[in-house]
Every structure is written in structure tokens, then in C-alpha cells.
User: Fold this.
Amino acid sequence: MASSEPVLAAVSPAPSRLRLALDRATGPLFALGFFAAWEAAVRLLAVPLYIAPPPSAVLWQLWRNLPRIAEYTLVTGGETLGGFLLAVCLGVPLSLAVAFSPLLRRTFYPAAVTLEMVPKIAFAPLFVTWFGFGYLPKLVIVFLVCFFPILLNGILAFTSLPPELHRLCLSTGAGRWRTFRWVRLPAAAPQLFVGIKGAAVNATVGATIAEWIGGDAGLGYYIQIATGDLRMDLAFAIILVLAALGLGLFGLVVLAERLLVPWHVSQRIPPGAGSGG
Amino acid sequence: MSVAVAIEGAAKVFPGPPAPVHALGPIDLSIEPGSFVALLGPSGCGKSTLLAMIAGLEAPTAGRITIDGRAVRGPQTEIGIVFQSPVLVDWRDVLGNVLLQADLRGLDRRALEPHARELLRSVGLEAFLDRRPWELSGGMQQRAAFCRALVHDPPLVLMDEPLGALDAMTREQLRADLEALWLRTRKTVILVTHAIDEAVQLADRVIVVSPRPGRIVRDLAVDLPRPRDLEVCESPPFHARVAEIKRIFQGYGVL
Assistant:
């Protein structure tokens, strides 16, 4: 109706190009302002380097120590990714097994919960004794901190099929495999990703702390050296890289989620954004 | 006279705890092939349980149910089911949801696709084949669910309050759609409902079920002309049947 058009336009005007650009720039602008304020505060108040270094010094250290940092990033990244992938590859099938096996639910599941209640870091010195200072003890620690969120969310994911959907599957005569392939697995995917994202957040923490306790390489080991020498500018540079590593892994998981479960309510474009579909 | 579904002395008692609940029966009922039968009763009378027992999704505590002469033991597959909610999956579009029936049955999806498209066209969803369930209204979603229950051409269709969750206007539209689908396909349909006018409008036979424990208290033939459009539903014979059933429920203190 032509008569209602002006009213509609007045209620929700199309956002201008400038407005959209500003919206997009808000995040980066905030970060830029934050670091500028940090730099100014540290310099104006003459805060000593060993308390809080200015961002410029952190960037300088990052640049100067780039070869060493790059080498250790590969070490820590390898531990993080290895333990994380191991946890995904074992956690998802095991959660499926626990979801459908009363025996495993009585035996394996309580054991896993008990293990989860123990701070995994308490095992680290033990692992050093067992596996030495190399890659293996770190891999095990990362695996342990990643495994539980995947297992717990996986069990929830595989036991939450709506009863009517299950009845529909039964009425088709679909066996376990076809039910799993066409209904149970896709229905479980969003909750599975909740666990995998939780694991991705834990992974770098596990690797860093494992290196603190018994390491001779890696960013966690390096950060301990830097803080021991009161070189907070270098320590912050390493923290920056660790943050990037964690974000990178999390970003990969989010990307995988967007590709694999684009249909989920959390992935849909909110009304008003995009092309107004 | 051939029989599509025979129910002999079927009863259901849920064991509890706290105490055993006698939900239903004993029920004796024979349903002819190609007929549209409504199981009409108040909430909690066990009519949905009876439907689940016919589908083989619940076992009767006593008695026997046969479909085409074969005893029901375990989930039946020569059927189509419609629930109160559409139960569409979000990871498939409308056409894909209808063809989920083919994938779950291990049938050739391409072989069933023309039939799926034809069914969706007949309920006015031809422009929404590639839409996801969340982009559809509740009535459209339930129409897609009807198509999913029919795409594999089952001789028997079981519907558990399929219009119960819809708003009044959509319900009216879907009743007409449902009758048109049935007139075209002539499946045996068992419809569970608690709406008296819906049962009278759609069914050849209204089986009136008492409050719990549910028993058949009236087997009412509805011989009104089809399609039962507004004119039929406004006619005195229609109202007479609705009133007759209302009096039965009044006798039980339900109305």
C-alpha cells in the first residue's frame, strides 16, 4: 500500500553507509584507544619497565625476538593442536559410546568425572617423571584439559534427541546407522561444538602451564625465563603471541562450526542485518 | 469386509511409580481400509497411547492389535506419522525434510522426489521448497509434515493431534487441506483429536473415548457429503452430530 510507505520509512530508515562503516570500526577503534591510553599512562606516570611496559616496548621486543618466538610458537602450537585434536578424535566417539552404553555410564563416566575434579596441573610433575621433558607430557596435559568439555557436551548432545523425532525414525524402520547419519549426528552437532569450543579455549592454557612445570622449549617456558629476568616487555610480547595462538585455534573451530552447522539458530543472520531475509 | 486395523481387547496400564495408572481399555475396534477415523476424547484419556500402540511404539499391557492381519510387535514401518509439532529438522530445507523419509528408509531419494514435489504443490508449498523450517509459519511447517507422512505412499497414516498447536484460523485452513489430501489419496487415516467439530468435519467415523481409563463409549458414523466445506459445516445435520457428542462428554462432567 502506497500510503503506508512513508510511515514505514520513518520508523526504520535505511542505515547510511557512514553509519555502517562506523559500526564496523567500533571494535578496532576501541582497541586502538585502549592501547594509546596505556602507552600514555605508562609514559606520563613513569611506570618502571618491570611493572608494566608500554605497548611500543612490547612490539619492539616482539620484533627483536621474532626468530626465537616463532620457533617456540611452533612448539607450543604443536602441543596445543596435537592435544586438542586428540581430545576431539577420542572425546566425540567416547561420548557417543557413553551415551548408549549403560555399562560405560556406570564405569567410565564416573571415573572421567572424578579425573575432571582433580586439577590436571597436579599431574604435570608426575608426567614429567613418566614421560620426560619433551612433547609427550605436554600433549597429555593438553589432551586432559580438552577432553572433558568434549565428553560432557558430547553425552548431552547424543542423548538429547527430541522423542518425537526418535519415534519418526523408528516408524521408518531406519536402523542405528541410518538414524545416526541422517538425524542423530546432525542434531547433536551444535551441542558438540559447544564442547569443542570450550576445549579450544582450554588448549593453550594447558600447553603453557605444562611448559612452566617441566619444559625446555615453548612459549610457556620462554615466558618463565622472561619474567625471571624481570623483562616484562618480552613477557607481554609472548602473552600477545599466546593470545593470537588461542584466538587462531578458536577461530578455526568457529569457522568449522559455521561451515558444518550453518542452519543452527546461533548461526543465523539476525533480522535487520544483511540483506533483510 | 476387509479390515485395515483390528484392535482386540487392547489395554494399557502404566506401572508407576507411585501407583499403577490404568490409562486405557480394554478397547475393541475394527477399522476399514480407506476410511478416515477420528479418536475423540478429553485430554489424558489415553487416545494418544492407543495411537502409539497401533504404531508399535508402545506395547499394550493386554490384548492384541493387528494391521492387515499381521500382529503388531515393535515399531511399524508401513505407516506415516504426523505429530502435534511438525518435527522438521533445521538442517534440511522443506523438500529435504519430506525426503528425509526416503533417506531414513534407504530408498532412492531421486525416485521419490517427483512425488514429494507434487505433494508439496498440492498443499501450496511449491514456492517454499528450498526454505528452511524456521522461515515458515506453523501452518506451513505442519503442511510439510503431512507431505513427509505421505511421500512413501503408506497405506495407513496416524495423526496425533496434528492441528492442536495451531491458531484457530490456520486450523480451519489445514482441516480443508487435510480433507483434500485424503480425498486424493484415500489412505486409511486415524486421527487423534480433542476437538469435536474437527472430528465431525474430517472423519467418516468418530470413536468417542471416555475420560481415563479410556474406553469407547460411542462409535458414530458421519455420513455428511464431502468435501465438507463451510456450507456442510454450517448445516443442521453437522450441528446435530456435534451436539450429540457434546452431550456424551457432558455426561462425564468433561464439558
Notes: The interface with chain A takes residues 52, 55, 57, 75-77, 79-81, 83, 85, 87, 89-91, 100-101, 103-106, 132, 134 of chain B (CB under 8 Å).
